[in-house]
Amino acid sequence: MATIRRAGASRPGTPAPENPATSSDLVARARSGDKRSIARLLTIVENDEPEAADAMRALYPDTGRAQIVGITGPPGGGKSTLVNRLAAAFRERASHVAIVAVDPSSPFSGGAILGDRIRMRERFLDEGIFIRSMASRGHTGGLARATVRVVNVLDALGTDVVLVETVGVGQEEVDVIRVADTVCLVTVPGLGDDIQAIKAGILEIADVLVVNKADRPGADETARDLAQMLSLAKDRPWKTPIIRTSAQTGEGLPQLLDAIAKHRSWSLSSGEHEDRRRAAARAEVEALLREALLRELEGRVGAARLNAAVARVAERSIDPYAAVEELLRR
Ligand SMILES: Nc1nc2c(ncn2[C@@H]2O[C@H](COP(=O)(O)OP(=O)(O)O)[C@@H](O)[C@H]2O)c(=O)[nH]1
Ligand SMILES: [Mg+2]
Description:
- With 330 residues, this protein is α/β, with parallel strands linked by helices.
- Helices cover 54% and strands 11% of the residues.
- The chain is globular, with a radius of gyration of 22 Å.
- Helix 2 packs across helix 4 and helix 3 crosses helix 4 (52-59).
- The protein contains 14 helices and seven strands.
- Mean pLDDT is 83; it is low at 1-18 and 109-119.
- The protein folds into three domains: 1-61, no CATH class; 63-270, Rossmann fold (3-Layer(aba) Sandwich), CATH 3.40.50; 283-329, no CATH class.
- The longest helix is centred in the C-terminal third of the chain and has 30 residues, at 272-301.
- It binds guanosine-5'-diphosphate and magnesium ion.
- Magnesium ion (MG) is lined by residues 79-80, 103, 105-106, 165.
């Protein structure tokens, strides 16, 4: 991205390529709590626009304080409804709560039925709750990294709790939810085959299993199936609790909050929290490094040689390994 190139290009005494006032003014306004400036800042980092590097540089020292809770699971499981409730519950104890919805079908991102919208409006009226919907496609460098940047900005601006909602289906979504300190996987009674599908990817990274819509029949069986699956999974030092909730009535919410709090304190005392943050930092640095190295190598090799090599690979006159060896040799 522009990030590293610009960093390398700005020597002392050289004016920054963009007007530096733009991003620092925006950061200052966002810090003072102006929601429009916060939204603009989030768009800049989400899309990795040219001002993103300066903004991150200013904000990064203030990150690392927020509690980040991920809510994932198949569409329609009640994640948004649950997130809405969790936000209200956290808000009773914290002054700033944010919701980041990566779920394309989320009421937060416009796929709402009327009832959800009305409930959401109540949250919008609470000045202490900030809601951000993220586009699920079109991020240079990936959705997961865009989400990390958005969460970092909210964190730096003094958000106490960030709730991240995402549809837990593909690898990309699994990567997104890794930003969370505590990952809650939401299932519903009678998912049957879907539970088998969940098993493959995301069960290992779930810290709390939630059987939502427990007001419906079959919640106990689903909880039992999940317990069975957990017993087959490889041992982890954290014992994943299974919590039954009804996001609609609020039943089970205290138990869910308690499970999240317990995981957080275990995570902090066991070193898990530190490990995750280190892994996230490594992923971000390595991704930027890869981009920078690729750019540098492309510059060194030159477009003409690269194109010629690609053409030869395409017409099968050499194989890709040989092409790379040859390109790197000189
Ligand atoms: N019966 C029942 N319905 C629920 C519950 N939680 C959510 N719903 C409904 O399930 C539908 C999908 O909820 P939503 O929160 O949008 O799910 P998401 O796609 O996982 O974010 C909505 O119509 C909700 O009102 C619950 O605990 N019980
Ligand atoms: Mg949703």
